[in-house]
Amino acid sequence: MIEKVVRFNRVTSTQDKAKEFVADRHPIAVVASSQEKGRGRQGRNWFSPEGGLYLSLLLFPKERVTSIPLLASLSVIRTLEHLGLSDLSIHWPNDVLLKKRKVCGVVCERYQSAVICGVGLNVNVETFAPRLDGATSLKVETGQVFGVDEILDLFLDKFNELYEELQSKGLKIKEVLNYISGLGESVEVVTKRGVIRGTVSDIDDDWALLLRDESGIIKKFYYGDVRRLQW
Ligand code: BTN
């Protein structure tokens, strides 16, 4: 359970800052107003100007858990619903979409005995990296300015609730499947080993994507980028 928040103004990346606290072995959230070198999944950059929420959760889970990124995405969804937003979904593995556009990204990495789960939420940001033509922010979608600190507090409450549930009795991923976008759709999954086309068949209890490929074989993915072939 995260009880402490450590705040910074400008950092290179909250993922790196979080590493400095690993020896304390206390779960904390590291937050920054902006990042010089925000990191996304698969070595991509995460454009991090002021106005966004940039945080890294430093966690010490009791056992290996593959669902932590899902907990983070789901906590973002519950936070945004609490603020009255709707049309939210999770694009596997861990992008949160608002009106089918990416509003939040999650990246998790292991570091020594810890898992560092980074969350970037476009709150009041209005410009995006040129590559991100599908990106949006809360401000762009609603015309309103949101309190980044209020969102952080709500997010931590929602995350703590789900994390306790996961640690005490295990989280039933099936219960959150109604938020997953793309089930039954034709997609291609891009991994370091290649591109596989198929239909999204299910998400496993360990948060793996099950894809029925073009010859009908079910393939399981723990990582990768999913591109829709149709909306
Ligand atoms: C992605 O969609 O590729 C994941 C983006 C994750 C960005 C967040 S912002 C806070 C934390 N610090 C980083 O450098 N990255 C994560």
Give a structural overview.
This protein is 21% helix and 34% strand. The protein is α+β, with helices and mostly antiparallel strands and 231 residues long. The protein has two domains: 4-178, BirA Bifunctional Protein, domain 2, CATH 3.30.930; 183-228, SH3 type barrels (Roll), CATH 2.30.30. The strands form two sheets. The protein has a seven-stranded mixed beta sheet with strand order 1-2-3-7-6-5-4. Strand 8 (186-191) and strand 9 (194-203) form a beta hairpin. The longest helix is centred in the C-terminal third of the chain and has 22 residues, at 148-169. 35% of the residues are buried. Biotin binds next to helix 1, strand 3, strand 6 and strand 7.
Describe the secondary structure blueprint for this structure.
Elements: E1 4-11, H1 14-19, E2 28-35, E3 53-59, H2 68-82, E4 88-91, E5 95-98, E6 101-111, E7 114-121, H3 138-142, H4 148-169, E8 186-191, E9 194-203, E10 209-213, E11 218-221, E12 225-228
Parallel strand pairs: 1-2
Antiparallel strand pairs: 2-3, 3-7, 4-5, 5-6, 6-7, 8-9, 8-12, 9-10, 10-11
Bound molecules: biotin.
Biotin binds at residues 13-15, 35, 38-41, 44, 46, 54-56, 95, 105-107, 118-120.
Which keywords apply here?
binds biotin; BirA Bifunctional Protein, domain 2; SH3 type barrels; 231 residues; 34% strand; globular; alpha+beta; single chain; five-stranded antiparallel beta sheet; seven-stranded mixed beta sheet
